[in-house]
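Q: How would the structure tokens look for this protein?
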Amino acid sequence: MRTAENWKDYCLIDCSDSEKLEKWGDIVLIRPDPQIIWKTGHKSPLWNSAHGHYHRSDKGGGQWSFHKKIPDSWIISYGDLRFNIRPTGFKHTGLFPEQAVNWDFMDKLIRESGRPINVLNLFAYTGGATLACANAGASVCHVDASKGMVQWARDNAASSGLSDRPIRWIVDDCEKFVAREIKRGRKYDAVIMDPPSYGRGPNQEVWKLEDCIFDLVKLCTGVLSDEPLFFLLNSYTTGLSPSVMAYILGETVGAKYGGNVSADEIGLPVKESRFTLPCGSTAIWTR
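A: Here is the predicted structure in token form.
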């Protein structure tokens, strides 16, 4: 497992009984995580003094209860990067901190490439990977279907001092955008993809990751340059193992360009237990 160990402004303090206790800067939150099936008791006193607690509803969704006043949003840092954090109505805070292990990986590849790198970031959310690549010197095309998430990403870029970097901010359906880029003949040296497990398009098209991911990855090989640097595929879908994603990259990007494919779980260290909480999977093709 690859672990995001370099955080200073974020900490996964403890986890037990389908919940995790986290510190985001100075704010302590309790959020649900269904994969935490162990019931080891609460080892930290901060469980009793958290600022906010997200409670799941039996009918789906849930809501926050706040025991202490918190700002509407606040900033945490990861190296040179600054992220605006705020609790949303669907338990998230606008950042997946485990992805820092991938930010570091991409930063290193881009800096060591010794050439201009053009990155396509699909399902780009609030821009963690976009900012990491831009900060490393790459040009980035950031694509997400949610106008609100793209604006949040732009705010993060401004907070990080990266507003003047060559970043294209695109609100669009990712698959349709890639198809148009192929027709336009536009090429990218790297592709990042973090697709949802399930969703619906603007015309109620159903997206189910297991059914759609192979065709989408194969489509994306059409926008890769003659000498691509990497293709990174993230997944939070239960049952879609790292090995399955590696196989997909090998049969698509690898079949066209050769290179190497690796895949593993990514995770966060748990302060109280000193174990690691798995938080999804990443498969990576490199030249």
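The two ends are 22 Å apart (CA to CA).

The chain has a mean pLDDT of 95.

Upvote if useful.
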